Amino acid sequence: MISSSPLPLIKGLKPLSIGNVYIGFPAIQAPLSGYSDRPQRHVTQNLHESVADFPEYSALPSQWKTSIIGAAATVAEVMLDQFVLTVKKSVKVNQRMGLEPSDHPCGAQIMGAFPEDFPPAAMRLVKSGFDWIDLNFACPVKKVLGRKRGGFLLSEPETALEMTARTRDALPDGVPLTIKLRKGYDDSAQSEDNFYKLLNGAIAIGVDAVAIHGRTVLQRYTGEADWSFLKRVKSEFPSLVILGCGDLFSAQTCLDRILETGVDGVCIARGAIGNPWIFPAFNALAMGLPALPPPSLEEQAAVLAEHFNRCVDLYGERRTCSIIRKFGIKHALTHPRKDELVARFVTVRNREEWFSILKEFYEKQGAE
Ligand SMILES: Cc1cc2nc3c(=O)[nH]c(=O)nc-3n(C[C@H](O)[C@H](O)[C@H](O)COP(=O)(O)O)c2cc1C
C-alpha cells in the first residue's frame, strides 16, 4: 500500500521498493521451503492488531499502526518450474499459488534446470497474482545441486543468465524480476569470477533487485554469514537494490546489518520461524520507536490458533498436524515451560490436542 505521506524511517534507512512494487519497511520474509506457505505468510503479514495497541504507539498516525504489525512483504517457498508448469489439481494450485488480498506484497520463487521452462512458469505465477518473480540460484541442498538447479547455477553463470534473460523478456513490464544468490559456489577465485559475471549480466538484463546470502553454497549453513561481502558488493553497485541475508535472528541485528553495510533491506529467514514478531519489532526500530514488548502469551496463542485454523482450511486437519508441529516447536522455544511444551507439540495429532495445548500453556493461569 502506498501512503500519501512517506514512511518515517530513521536516518540511514529508506523505504524499500522492488521495481515498482512498494514494500516500505526494509525487512521482508525470505523464502523458506517447508515453512513460508500460505498460512504462515498470512499470519506473518497480518499479526494480531494488539501489537500496535501499546501506549507508545497511540501517537502514531493510524496508517502506520496497521503497516507496522507484520512483515512488509514475504516470498513463497521455492517452487520447481516443472511443478508450476504441470500442476493441474485445483486443490494443489490453491495451496501453492493462491493469494488473498491481505497477502500482498508477495514474491514467488522458481527453481529449475532448463532455461526454456522459466518463462512459462513465471507467467503462470504472475497470473496467479504474485507481485514479483524471484529466481533461485542459491539452494545448497545436495539433491538440488545434483539436478543442476539452485546453487549449482552459480557455477554456470551463462545458464543462469539465460534463465534470467528469458524470464525478463517474458514478464510484462512492471512485474519485477529478482534473483537470489549466495556469495559464490565455493571460496575459489573462479567462483568469485562467476559471481560477478552473473551479477553484472543480471544487472544488464534489468533485474530489479538481488538477494544475497553471505555464505557459499558449499558452506550451506556452517560458519557465519559474511556481511563484509554484502558491504563490498553494495559499495560496488550502489544503484542496485540489494537485500542481505544470513544470521538475522533479532530485529536489532537486522537494523545493524543494514546500517553497517548500506544494503537496501534484509530477508529474514530462520529468525522468523516461530517468531513472526521479529517484523513488528524491526518496524518499530526502523521508525525510531521504543522497542516493542515481546508478545504476550495470549497474543502468541491467538497467532498459533489462527495459523492452525488456516492450515486446516487449506490442507485438512490430518495434514495440518504434520505441518504445524515444527512451527509449534519453534514457538515453544521462548516459552517459560519450553521443554514440556515442545514435548506436547511434537505429538499433536488433532485440533482438540492443539487447542488444549494452547489453553494449558498460553492461558494466564496455566502459564504465569
Ligand atoms: C528451512 C529453510 C528453507 C529455506 N528455503 C529457501 C527457499 O525456498 N528459497 C530460498 O531462496 N532460500 C531458502 N532458504 C534460505 C533462506 O531464505 C536464507 O537465505 C538463509 O536461511 C539465510 O538466512 P538466515 O541465516 O537468516 O536463516 C531456506 C532456509 C531454510 C533454513
Proportion of helical residues: 40-55%
Low-confidence stretches: none
CATH architecture field of the largest domain = Alpha-Beta Barrel
CATH homologous superfamily heading of the largest domain: Aldolase class I
Molecular shape: globular
For the largest beta-sheet, the strand count, sense and barrel status come to:
9 strands, parallel
Tell me the strand percentage band. 5-15%
Number of helices: 16
Output the CATH topology of the largest domain.
Answer: TIM Barrel
- C-alpha-based Rg, rounded: 20 Å
Mean pLDDT, rounded to whole units?
93
Write down the CATH class of the largest domain.
Answer: Alpha Beta
State the secondary-structure class. alpha/beta
Total number of distinct structural domains: 2
Describe the structure.
The protein has 368 residues and is of the alpha/beta class. The chain folds into 2 domains: 16-286, Aldolase class I (TIM Barrel, Alpha-Beta Barrel), CATH 3.20.20.70; 297-367, Non-ribosomal Peptide Synthetase Peptidyl Carrier Protein, Chain A, CATH 1.10.1200. Helix content is 45%, strand content 14%. The strands form 2 sheets. Strands 3, 4, 5, 6, 7, 8, 9, 10 and 11 form a 9-stranded parallel beta sheet that branches. A two-stranded antiparallel sheet has the order 1-2. A hairpin with a 2-residue loop joins strand 1 (16-18) and strand 2. The mean pLDDT is 93. It binds flavin mononucleotide.
Task: Please describe the topology of this protein.
Blueprint (H helix, E strand, L loop, with lengths): L15 E3 L2 E4 L2 E3 L8 H8 L16 H6 L6 E2 L3 E2 H6 L3 H8 L8 E6 L6 H11 L3 E6 L4 H5 L10 H14 L6 E8 L4 H17 L3 E8 L10 H10 L5 E4 L5 H11 L3 E4 L9 H9 L10 H19 L1 H16 L5 H9 L4 H12 L1 H4 L1
The structure holds flavin mononucleotide.
The site of flavin mononucleotide has 21 residues, from loops.
